[in-house]
Design a protein that fits this description.
6% helix; two-stranded antiparallel ribbon; 39% strand; mainly beta; 395 residues; 25-stranded mixed beta sheet; 4 helices
Length: 395
């Protein structure tokens, strides 16, 4: 019974969230199973459904076709291993189907450029929001709990614990992985993204990962110290990259594309803390972001939206076809975002805006104090080189 109650709680909708803009809502139903240490609904020797809580390691077999039919929950101490070249599909049941790597668990999804790992929908005509995506939860610091505390908070979907004081926590490896048609909202306060990165530590590897046609954010970082690189987001219906709760890792070589005819919000949405929680820690979000290319769809969207006191060190940025470039919002009187500019904790160096960017900068702090260097030095990221073979949908 204990396992049954645990699973029911894990798939129930939760209360805390970041802001939601315009993604359609998906209703979650409690259709969980109580199977432990096993796959469920096996249909043949070479086809198997994944659904339930796993308290021992799970290594997928390339000879078997796997379908995610509900929450797949890896318990602390376990490892989910997905070999290079595998495709794992989810039934198109929205946020009722997702993979969650809980605190103390790991995922090893180590593909190659010629043999990437694909997490996708098995719908006949797949579309954004078909399934819930990948959730990883670590023990690195967040600023919604006290500094150096072992206290945790819980994820927006599933009530899964995250946070702690282990800056170099290791939740595994994602390398050459593509996440397709994922994400969605239970309501305005609980959402899943392509990759929801909760308090991931610096020993976690996230490198060469794409989120394609997602219903919510592409990547969202809830605190943590993880250093992620070679990230691609194509057609996220909300923000392509989102951070909150004191994220202090690095993001290197980022490519964002928003095609016309699709729903989008900001390229980057950057919060110093989660405004739906109390700001308990002493450090705001302050990642280092280097080598970024953003290609917008020409609507009124923002390439970068910084608020709730977010800090950050940006360099080598190219912005094309966004109506607005950097937008700094002093939305919290006690923690104005512009203070980061004054203190040197929020800067952008070597930034190029093409002619379609109508308003490159909006904010209280003088533009010259925030944007430095020379636009001639900006090259963005070399997606045409490192994106070959494993990405899809790039113009």
């Amino acid at each position: 019974m204990k396992n049954k109650f645990l699973l029911l709680g894990m798939v129930a909708s939760l209360i805390w969230s970041c802001e939601r803009d315009d993604t359609s809502e998906i209703v979650i139903n409690d259709n969980s199973v109580t199977t432990v240490n096993n796959t469920t609904g096996s249909t043949s020797d070479n086809a198997m459904n994944l659904n339930g809580l796993y308290s021992t390691d799970l290594t997928l077999d390339p000879a078997i076709t796997y379908t995610i039919t509900g929450p797949v929950l890896m318990a602390s101490g376990t490892t989910l291993t997905i070999p290079a070249g595998m495709t794992v599909s989810a039934a198109p049941i929205g946020v009722n189907a997702y993979i969650a790597i809980q605190q103390g668990a790991k995922i090893i999804a180590d593909g190659t450029a010629t043999n990437p790992i694909v997490l996708t929908s098995n719908a006949a005509s797949p579309s954004s929001g078909n399934w819930g995506g990948l959730i990883m939860l670590g023990k690195a610091p967040i600023n919604s709990t006290a500094d150096n505390s072992e206290e945790t908070t819980t994820s927006e979907v599933g009530a899964l614990a995250y946070g702690g004081n282990i800056a170099d926590d290791n939740s595994g490896t994602l390398r050459y992985v593509r996440i397709e048609y994922a994400g969605g909202a239970i309501d305005g306060n609980a959402e899943l993204n392509g990759l929801s990165a909760y308090a991931l530590g610096s020993a976690t590897i996230i490198d060469y990962v794409q989120v394609f046609e997602g219903s919510d954010d592409g990547f969202e970082f809830f605190g943590g110290t993880v250093n992620a690189s070679h990230l691609v987001v194509v057609n996220a219906e909300d923000d392509s990259i989102d951070w909150t709760e004191g994220f202090t890792g690095t993001l290197t070589d980022i490519y964002i594309q928003q095609d016309s005819g699709k729903e989008h919000d900001s390229g980057f949405e950057c919060d110093g803390f989660n405004t739906d929680y109390a700001f308990v820690g002493t450090s705001l979000s302050k990642p280092t972001v280097t080598n970024v290319t953003l290609s917008g769809d020409g609507d009124s969207g923002r390439a970068f939206r910084l608020r709730a006191g977010s800090q950050g060190i940006f360099s080598n940025i190219m912005v094309a076809t966004f109506n607005r470039g950097f937008v700094l919002e002093d939305d919290d009187a006690s923690l104005p975002t512009s203070q980061g500019v004054t203190d040197g904790d929020l800067t952008a160096t070597d930034v190029f805006f093409n002619a379609n960017v109508v308003t490159p900068y909006t904010g209280v702090a003088p533009e010259a104090d925030f944007i430095k260097g020379s636009s001639a030095n900006a090259t963005g990221t070399a997606i045409a080189s490192w994106g070959i073979g494993w990405t899809v949908g790039i113009n």
